[in-house]
Amino acid sequence: MKKIAYLILAHNDPAHLGALARSISGYADIYVHLDAKAHLPDFILSCPDSVTFIDDRVSVAWAGISMVDAQLNLTRAALPFSERYTHFFFITGSDYPIKPEKEISKILTSSPERQFVKYIDMRDSPEHYMKLISRKQFREPVIRSSVKHITLADKLIRKCLRALKIPNRWDKRMIPYFGHTWCALTPECCKHVLDFHDNNPWFYEMNKDTMAPDEHYYHTIIGNSPFASNADGLQVYQGRGLWRLVNFHLICPSLQKWFTLEDWDEVYASDKLFVRKVNSKTGAGLVGEIDMKILSR
Question: N or C terminus: which one in the chain shows less Cβ crowding within 10 Å?
């Protein structure tokens, strides 16, 4: 019987990543991309031996193309074992399940050809979403360094570059689609994404300096492919807000809130599969309550 593979992007909090891995490892395999800036041994010690930490690690910049690089590397690492899985489920190291893992597995494996991903046509929002791809945003460091004054200089350089509002040319052969990064895709769909990426370097170059390309890179490839017909897919644009396009996650509309035990009632009542964001410092009480009252661990 096939199962799912969790593809996790993590960058900090080894204690929470370990708790997350233990909560989902019974009915799935787990692959982790750890930000190259993080100390790998700390995370290995916190996680079950069954977790696979991929070798091809990149230093991830917030809202930069390196997020896509990490996602592609995870996809590439899991694909050789694709016959084992119905879906690759992309999550972060700060997620936590709020449904039993057996229930999560059943939801995905019972729809082996479905792409659990939603997106909007960015052209429906010329005043906001199209600006994410029509101007160069320079989110990746121009000068990579761990020296504080050099990193400050780099941030200033990129701020000045953004102020120039340099156009980014979008190839109109591709309808731009935007959605939540954290989704579940079949291995066949992921192979298509990877093949398209490998065979069309112009697409990567076109997205390289956009804002948060992880929120439109996979979506645009899928939305312009035959896999769109089996996806949750194109949604009616109802206004700004990534929270409108979540696939499985309970998140705060602000995207900034970290969930704690004070949010227990909301978490318990949710029909979502995961809560995002949780950490081991402020969220340990919530995790304990979830374990005891939802996951029965």
Answer: N
Q: Residue with structure tokens 């509002």?
A: 165
Which residue carries 């410092």 as its tokens?
281
First to last CA, the chain: 24
Does residue 297 have a pLDDT over 70?
no
CB 249 within 8 A of CB 275: yes
User: What radius of gyration, in Å, describes the C-alpha atoms of the chain?
Assistant: 19
Compute φ and ψ for 2, nearest 5 degrees.
-75, 155
3-state secondary structure the chain: CCEEEEEEEECCCHHHHHHHHHHHCCCEEEEEEECCCCCHHHHHHHCCCCCEECCCCCCCCCCCCHHHHHHHHHHHHHHHHHHHEEEEEEEECCEEECCCHHHHHHHHHCCCCCEEEEEEEHHHCCCCCCHHHHECCCCCCCCCCCCHHHHHHHHHHHHHHHHCCCECCCCCCCCCEECCCCCEECHHHHHHHHHHHHHCHHHHHHHCCCCCHHHCHHHHHHHCCHHHHHEEEECCCCCCCHHHHCCCEECCCCCCCCCCHHHHHHHHHCCCCEEECCCCCCCHHHHHHHHHHHHCC
User: Rounded mean pLDDT of the chain?
Assistant: 97
- When comparing pLDDT for 294 and 1, which is higher? 294
The type of residue at 139 is R
Q: Is the dihedral of CA 45, 48, 49, 52 positive or negative?
A: negative
> What percent of the chain shows pLDDT beyond 90?
97
Asked whether the CA dihedral 71, 72, 73, 76 is positive or negative, the reply is: positive
At 218, is the pLDDT very low, low, confident or very high (cuts 50, 70, 90)?
Answer: very high
Cβ atoms of 207 and 133 closer than 8 Å? yes
pLDDT in tens, 47-77: 999 999 999 999 999 999 999 999 999 999 9
